[in-house]
Amino acid sequence: MPHISIISSSVRNGRNSHRVALYFSKFLQENNLATAGVLDLHEYQFPLFDERLRFQKDPSPAVLEFAGKIKASDGVIIVTPEYNGGYPASLKNVVDLLYDEWHRKPVAISTVSDGIFGGTQVITSLQFSLWKIRAWTVPAMFPVPKAPTAFTEDGTPTDKEGTDKRASAYIKELLWCIEASKRMSAS
Question: What is the pLDDT of residue 132?
Answer without folding.
Answer: 94
